[in-house]
């Protein structure tokens, strides 16, 4: 964990250096001080809704494992996002699988698989919105089409791979033939893999998978509105379709392993995409700080509350891996 933290910090420092060099900090402070903070009120609604929709989506993803109500999953979801603000390399995803497994007595491997599938569906949701946005945006970076094509191929490939695993999962038994491994260890590995594959099985349920797609779109529509309102706090006014593109670029950026909370990578990709559409660097940096701080404070306040309520300690989470 210490090595991960150090590496994550180094990556974050590098991206922060890129985004903060040659910047007028006095202007950034003035922009923040003169912000129109009433715009934060609708942000609270849209951001909270995005987590409600995430909880409902996770309920459908978990159907092959166990039936849940969305409200049963909300606290685990928030705690996972809060853990991402504490631990590097998106370790919060493992934390979330650990918590829901412990609380509801379900396979942690299967829970983790649903979170992996959730990340794939996040990609599908934002790409769908981006496809609509590109129809209305006249000015887009030349690399966009290549990135979109690669992303689509990756997500389709991931879903196809998951489908193959489900159909062919009985072939995992070939692991039993591997020499030098003790029988008990082989059985444990095979059991873990089969439970993990179970977490993908929602894609074989047409109705359930359609609902996952629908709520993925709902999540990213809320995320777009959240960003749309928050940049208005800093006096920046861009179209809804432009914000979809900025959100897409930022999402691509935060997939890079970094310090807890994706500090540095978030700011760099957000600022770079905002500047492409004519926003000054100072306004873009002020907006990045506002959006990132808002998100971190929101999940940390709720996350800490649920950690105390559930009686889960930092030491227990750190040993979850």
How would you describe this protein?
It is a single chain. With 321 residues, the protein is mostly helical. It has one domain (2-11, 36-318). Helices cover 73% and strands 0% of the residues. The chain has 13 helices and no strands. The longest helix is centred in the C-terminal third of the chain and has 30 residues, at 281-310. The mean pLDDT is 86.
Number of helices: 13
What percent of residues adopt helix (DSSP H or I)? Answer: over 70%
- Sheet/helix structural class: mainly alpha
What is the string of SSEs from the N terminus onward? Answer: HHHHHHHHHHHHH
Fraction of residues in β-strands: under 5%
Radius of gyration: 21 Å
Total domain units? 1
Q: Which regions contain 5 or more consecutive residues with pLDDT less than 50?
A: none
Distance between the termini: 10 Å
> What form results from the Cα inertia axes?
globular
Offer a few descriptive terms.
321 residues, 13 helices, 0% strand
SSE topology sketch:
Blueprint: H1 2-20, H2 25-33, H3 40-61, H4 70-84, H5 92-104, H6 108-134, H7 144-167, H8 183-198, H9 206-233, H10 240-253, H11 265-276, H12 281-310, H13 314-318
Helix pairs in contact: 1-11, 2-12, 3-4, 3-9, 4-5, 4-12, 5-6, 6-7, 6-8, 6-9, 6-10, 9-10, 9-12, 10-11, 11-12
Concise structural overview:
The protein is mainly α and 321 residues long. It has helices at residues 2-20, 25-33, 40-61, 70-84, 92-104, 108-134, 144-167, 183-198, 206-233, 240-253, 265-276, 281-310, 314-318.
């Amino acid at each position: 964990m210490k090595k991960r933290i150090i590496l994550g910090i180094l990556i974050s420092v590098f991206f922060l250096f890129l985004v903060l060099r040659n910047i007028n900090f006095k202007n950034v402070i003035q922009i923040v001080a003169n912000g129109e903070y009433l715009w934060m009120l609708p942000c609270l609604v849209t951001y909270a809704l995005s987590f409600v929709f995430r909880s409902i989506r996770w309920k459908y993803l978990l159907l092959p494992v166990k039936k849940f109500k969305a409200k049963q999953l909300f606290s685990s979801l928030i705690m996972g996002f809060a853990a991402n603000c504490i631990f590097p390399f998106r370790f919060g995803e493992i934390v979330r699988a650990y918590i829901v497994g412990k609380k509801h007595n379900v396979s942690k491997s299967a829970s983790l698989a649903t979170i992996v599938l959730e990340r794939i569906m996040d990609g599908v949701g934002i790409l769908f919105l981006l496809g609509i946005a590109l129809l209305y945006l006249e000015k887009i970076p030349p690399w966009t089409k290549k990135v979109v094509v690669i992303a689509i191929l990756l997500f389709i490939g991931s879903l196809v791979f998951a489908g193959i695993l489900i159909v062919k999962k009985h072939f995992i038994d070939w692991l039993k033939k591997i020499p030098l491994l003790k029988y008990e260890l082989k059985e444990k590995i095979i059991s873990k893999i089969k439970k993990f594959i179970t977490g993908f099985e929602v894609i074989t349920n047409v109705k359930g998978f359609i609902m996952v797609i629908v709520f993925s779109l709902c999540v990213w529509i809320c995320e777009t509105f959240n960003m749309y309102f928050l940049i208005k706090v800093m006096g920046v006014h861009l179209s809804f379709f432009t914000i979809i593109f900025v959100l897409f670029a930022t999402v691509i950026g935060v997939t890079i392993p970094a310090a807890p909370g994706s500090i540095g990578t978030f700011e760099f990709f957000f600022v770079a995409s905002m500047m492409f559409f004519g926003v000054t660097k100072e306004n873009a940096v002020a907006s990045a700080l506002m959006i990132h701080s808002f998100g971190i404070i929101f999940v940390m306040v709720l996350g800490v509350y649920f950690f105390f309520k559930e009686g889960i300690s930092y030491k227990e989470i750190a040993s979850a891996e």
